[in-house]
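Field reference: sequence -> structure
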Amino acid sequence: MIHDAASLADWLKTTARHAPTADAGAKLLLSLQSGTQPLALATAGTHALTFLSGPEGGLSLAEETAALACGFMPVTLGPRVLRAETAPLACLSLIALMPHAPA
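Structure field:
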């Protein structure tokens, strides 16, 4: 599902209303910070995913903190930093290639 344009704060409020359940899937934050886990590990066995990908240069520390407070888990695509336009496409491609990806 693609949502209408909204401020990050409003969008996070909307996603925070959805309580995490076993079938709700994972909420993933593409992060440039240290301590993130690889995307493949975070999505293992999960079919429903919500991604948050920031602008060029990534989200600010305050924005990432707000996302983490709303239940997002920080993930990485690896050691390279991708452009804002290509990072979401890389996520979708990786997920489609994973053995557990839905048909």
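Note: Residues 8-97 form a domain with the Alpha/beta knot fold (CATH 3.40.1280.10).
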